[in-house]
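Researcher: Final request for today, and then I'll write up notes for the group meeting. The sequence and the SMILES for pyridoxal-5'-phosphate follow.
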Amino acid sequence: MSGATTMDRLYVLEGGSSYRRQTCAPETESFFNVQDFSAAAHWAIERIADMLSRDDVEGVRLQRPVDLMARARNLMTAADLGCFDARRFADILELYLETGIKVNSRGYMGRQFSSVMPVTAVFEMVAAMAPQPASYYEAGQLANIADRLIEEVFGRFIGWPPGSFEMVTTSGASLANMTAALVARNRYVSGSWSGGLAAGRSTRPAVAVGQDAHFSVSRIAGIIGVGQDQVIRLPLNDRRQICPERAAATLDEAATEGLDIFCLIASAGTTAIGANDPLPELAALAKRCGAWLHVDAAHNGAFLVSDRLRPRLAGLELADSFCLDAHKALFVPALCTLLFYREKGLAETAFPHKDSYVFDPFEDEMTAVQSGVKNFECTKRPAILNLWLAWSLYGRRAFADKLEHLVMMTKAAHDYLADQPDFIVPYRPESNILCFIHQPLGVCGNRLSGLQLELRNRVRAGGRYLLSKVDLDGQTMLRIVLMNHRIGLSDIAGMAAEIRRHARDVLENNATRGKQNRPIRLQPQE
Ligand SMILES: *Cc1c(COP(=O)(O)O)cnc(C)c1O
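Model: Predicted protein-pyridoxal-5'-phosphate complex:
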């Protein structure tokens, strides 16, 4: 933003006699000043509206940590002024906006979080000022009711009979995955909540996960006491889905080694390429082993709201539990995760211990709808309200339309890149995630992987596009996630052109340096 505009806004912000610097009293009341709040909020809203209506192509502006530390530290000096400093407020907000990933820009293609439906952000502020901590009915009445209403809505999409299943909200899929695994452990590894895992057992409890499972899934065994040595990695097919036949063989082998698989965790939308595991086959496999089936549908679970995309989740209804992140493909502020259990009554078995200062001995109509006993969290943001609000205002189509568009656009990006002679696109996208390799003539093997990493870094440093990268079977690939519905094919072409430009620079530099025996390292560095 230009200096002049900042000054204009600051004038508004500083106007009015009641909150000028000189008149500030160092009493607590002055920190809770309503006029300061109004002025700050008006300024921020204008600033955000300005940001949302811009059409710049921007990724992220990375700064060196020492520089950012110095700038941020600078804003902390004289913090006991005892009054509202409009200029400092503006400077802090600007620094925040400057350093963030530009999720509303067409250059943002690198991550799984979305720009949010703007009205939900307004509600987010209201919810911060008038909180409804969501674990207890007394504190979060509407939050707990909204949980039940969204549960109903999604139950219809899943096809589960009303009243037969349940849903809890958590702050993130990482927590949801762990919570579901705890329910599985408490159910199948008898006595483990009190006696631990060793209690009277000759076999070792184990968890099976796909090779491309999210890192939150890979960590679960360590967290819930099963131990990372008891994680069985299930092999993938050529579309990077768990291969049921080979998985069955792996599980049989594990069983003969004394491992007792009590939980199988599949994915609907792997982080790497957005692949959906074959759920009907895996449900049958879990049943055969006597294991719980949890599906990490953090990314693709949102397909439930779309008639066109829902068939891609076939078999999800067979899972014992699954989670989906509304803060990803349902476009509400983070964090908002829905965790579903196929059988009602199981959610509260995750945490069997109940303390009297928060839980009453007998359930009544109010405590019956609260989520506290089913949740790891105590104070919990009522994040469900953002989803409920957007759903109430706009209905299903708002979500389905954007999601379908993103998936269609990703397919178009696949076709476009696959048509280029110098791009390799190894997997057809099942979602809005696409991996690809830029291969200039004559670059192969380790140098090709090294080049992708160098390209990700250079493109990111250029500030126009933000891409990510992923290592799959020893090959580094570039990765895009289309979360912004404004991105069109011309943006994909622009991104590809920028990649080519950087690749030419790298290779030319190397040719010159090569003569001086100092080529840039084109080896994988991670
Ligand atoms: C994002 C993601 C997670 C982690 O979810 P958080 O909400 O960030 O905790 C887990 N699994 C998959 C497949 C994801 O895409």
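Model: Residues 1-9, 16-23 have pLDDT under 50 and may be disordered. The pocket of pyridoxal-5'-phosphate is lined by residues 112, 172-174, 214, 216, 267, 269, 271, 296, 298-299, 325, 335, 337 (CB under 6 Å).
Researcher: Thanks, that's everything.
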